């Protein structure tokens, strides 16, 4: 018995139902009238915020700017209760956008795209799903998620554990761990949130930390109606400031060098930022050279270290929690992380002193012979960031080249949105996109490349793709800027260093959102320089 696969043809395929996939689908389908088919392997929209349902999951961008800005009417209807949005709040807002623009009609959920292969003769992409369905489309938009490919370390004995193993990036909704013995591995943003949320609830919590982190208070607090109304009245100015700033977190970045003021003034500024809250605000809103000058960086690091020692009453716990290297990873903030370790039921294990030897049936054994007895192990070990999801798919461009072969250890792009040898193929937050508050960056990229797609359609172009020279030049630019900062001097997920076996490489443009937006505008204003534009007429002649 034979089965016949029917191939459906549409104008564009969108992969992913997070912020990027939703906006791309809305623009292409609703605004430009193109036929669009969109997929997500999850059972509903939300992207990262669909999967990350762990206790304490929260954005570290303030509530009023962790949302789309393109619908001014919706902004006037939006409301929020706290300075930051919890996971459920973000998901509810995303679903509201889906309803408002009737976007459900475009999406097929519980469906993973397994391959996307460029057919050169037809100048179309052939996309296959986990259900075996085949689609062809002129354009493919990859909104796969910057932080969505789960990174689960390979630790000896994992299969022998008699308890439950969880990962924060695929956390069961409503999972109750009250009264259990819990181990949390990982000390980034997610790890600090989980520990802070679970510490008061579980019987015992052991936090396994390889690299202690610099974290400052989040400043999480209730927001009253008057504050919401005032924000609504000023949204135009707020969004203008966000899009013309560097990190796009809604505050003015400082230009004052840390060492240009007295020690007393420096401490006052840091204390004020500590009380106000916000990780990016502390790093970029206090002084202008914390991220670029080693001496300035040390002044901020020393202040945070002093706060850790002041907060954590047990000296040994404080020692294990206090970082000693540069303040040069993604700026973290928390809702009482260090205070949590003042509880008798919360402990910390320094993995560089006593590494994990293996997971045993009743817990985790460390190199000193101690067996930490556990009912649940939570991996807060982050993601194979930026390029991880691409590498897990069968993506082939011109001449059948696989994306893994093309990237060969270092993911590259032009502008973080497209790359050579992959025509009409766009990425949201692809390699070497801007390192900022993500939603404004997503909006910037989606607006730009969907306008580019419309330009291609209006001008009868068969294919658009960046030249290899443009990709190489952009990679060089991103590397040069990264080398001017402290971020490249430590190992972190920003450079792919959290994944075993992954080649360390530059993954972001750290030149700021305003500069990035200016570059995009200049390229569009100059006939999309850096891209090879192939007309449909030329394509038919060549055929």
Automatic annotation (TrEMBL):
<dbReference type="InterPro" id="IPR020946">
    <property type="entry name" value="Flavin_mOase-like"/>
</dbReference>
<protein>
    <submittedName>
        <fullName>NAD(P)/FAD-dependent oxidoreductase</fullName>
    </submittedName>
</protein>
<keyword id="KW-0274">FAD</keyword>
<comment type="similarity">
    <text>Belongs to the FAD-binding monooxygenase family.</text>
</comment>
<dbReference type="InterPro" id="IPR036188">
    <property type="entry name" value="FAD/NAD-bd_sf"/>
</dbReference>
<dbReference type="Pfam" id="PF00743">
    <property type="entry name" value="FMO-like"/>
</dbReference>
<keyword id="KW-0285">Flavoprotein</keyword>
<dbReference type="InterPro" id="IPR050775">
    <property type="entry name" value="FAD-binding_Monooxygenases"/>
</dbReference>
<keyword id="KW-0560">Oxidoreductase</keyword>
<keyword id="KW-0521">NADP</keyword>
């Amino acid at each position: 018995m034979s089965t016949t696969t029917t191939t459906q043809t549409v104008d564009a395929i969108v992969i992913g139902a997070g912020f990027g996939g939703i906006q791309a689908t809305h623009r292409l389908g609703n605004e430009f009238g193109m036929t669009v088919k969109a997929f997500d392997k999850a059972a509903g929209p939300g992207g990262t915020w669909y999967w990350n349902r762990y206790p304490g999951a929260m954005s570290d961008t303030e509530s009023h700017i962790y949302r789309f800005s393109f619908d001014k009417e919706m902004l006037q209807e939006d409301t929020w209760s706290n300075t930051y949005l919890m996971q459920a709040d973000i998901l509810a807002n995303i679903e509201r956008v889906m309803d408002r623009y009737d976007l459900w009609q475009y999406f097929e959920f519980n469906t993973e795209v397994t391959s996307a292969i460029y057919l050169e003769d037809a100048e179309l992409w052939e996309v296959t799903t986990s259900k075996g369905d085949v689609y062809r489309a002129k354009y493919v938009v990859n909104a796969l998620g910057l932080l969505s490919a789960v990174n689960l370390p390979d630790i000896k004995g994992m299969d022998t554990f008699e308890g439950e193993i969880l990962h924060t990036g695929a956390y069961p909704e409503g999972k109750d761990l009250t009264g259990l013995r819990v181990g949390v591995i990982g000390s980034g943003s997610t790890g600090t949130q989980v520990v802070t949320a679970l510490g008061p609830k579980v019987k015992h919590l052991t936090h396994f930390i390889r690299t202690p982190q610099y974290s400052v208070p989040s400043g999480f607090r209730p927001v009253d109606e008057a504050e919401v109304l005032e924000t609504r009245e000023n949204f135009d100015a707020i969004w203008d400031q966000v899009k013309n700033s560097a990190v796009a977190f809604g505050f003015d970045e400082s230009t004052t060098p840390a060492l240009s003021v007295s020690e007393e003034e420096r401490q006052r500024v840091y204390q004020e930022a500590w009380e106000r809250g916000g990780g990016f605000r502390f790093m970029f809103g206090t002084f202008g050279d914390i991220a670029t000058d080693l001496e300035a960086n040390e002044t901020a690091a020393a202040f945070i270290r002093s706060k850790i020692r002041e907060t954590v009453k047990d000296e040994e716990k404080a020692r294990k929690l206090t970082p000693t290297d540069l303040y040069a990873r993604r700026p973290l903030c928390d809702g009482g992380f260090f205070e949590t370790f003042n509880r008798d039921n919360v402990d910390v294990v320094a993995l560089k002193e006593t590494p994990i030897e293996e997971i045993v049936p009743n817990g985790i054994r460390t190199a000193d012979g101690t067996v930490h007895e556990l009912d649940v192990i939570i991996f807060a070990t982050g993601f194979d960031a930026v390029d991880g999801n691409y590498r897990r798919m069968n993506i082939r461009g011109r001449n059948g080249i696989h994306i893994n072969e093309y990237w060969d250890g270092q993911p590259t792009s032009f502008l973080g949105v497209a790359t050579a040898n992959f025509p009409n193929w766009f990425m949201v937050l692809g390699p070497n996109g801007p390192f900022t508050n993500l939603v404004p960056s997503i909006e910037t990229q989606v607006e730009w490349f969907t306008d580019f797609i419309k330009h291609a359609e209006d001008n009868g172009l068969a294919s658009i793709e960046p030249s290899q020279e443009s990709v190489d030049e952009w990679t060089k630019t991103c590397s040069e800027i990264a080398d001017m900062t402290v971020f490249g001097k430590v190992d972190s997920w920003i450079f792919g260093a959290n994944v075993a076996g992954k080649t360390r490489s530059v993954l972001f443009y750290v030149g700021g959102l305003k500069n990035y937006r200016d570059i995009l505008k200049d390229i569009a204003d100059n006939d999309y320089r850096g891209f090879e534009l192939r007309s449909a007429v030329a394509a038919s002649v060549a055929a």
